[in-house]
Amino acid sequence: GFARVAPWRLGLLEQDDHGARLVYELEEGDVRELPGAEHFTAPFRATCSIEVGSTASVTLTVRNTGTEPFDYEAALHSYLYVGDVARVRVRGLDGCTWWDKLDERTYRQEGDLVLQGETDRVYHHDGTVQVEDPALDRILVIDKEGSADTVVWTPGPAKAAEIPDLGPGEWEHLL
Prior knowledge:
Blueprint: H1 2-5, E1 9-16, E2 19-27, E3 44-52, E4 56-64, E5 89-91, E6 97-100, E7 105-108, E8 113-114, E9 119-123, E10 129-133, E11 138-142, E12 150-154, H2 156-161
Antiparallel strand pairs: 1-2, 2-3, 3-4, 5-8, 5-10, 6-7, 6-9, 9-12, 10-11
């Protein structure tokens, strides 16, 4: 969507010895000329708050600044750096149904997810997942609120070759 390529304004920057908080802002006037904005003409104000320290948090808020109600879609893409995507295990999706965007079919997850090449799935899951990353000896806990789906994506070698800002082999660290 247009918010992905829009020039968000930095509205607040706070930092101390424990971390930082940044708040970016976007309004309808900021996106008028962007591709796709003609499909969403309602007045709005969006804020994206990012807090980093010993944990990281991203909060997106969209406020209707007009008088007419509107519907919108939002997706926060958390691209995770992992040691080796082929060794990663994603826990917490067992028993969930998922839509495979590659073959346009629905499946049911059995056990932990182990990625094998290009993956583009939408899980009907509104809770927490854990990403076990043995190459970096860590477990990432991904928690969210207000979203009914969880997307798991990695490009694999062929798709990665089509993405201009990914260098050779970088996809192996992208989840």
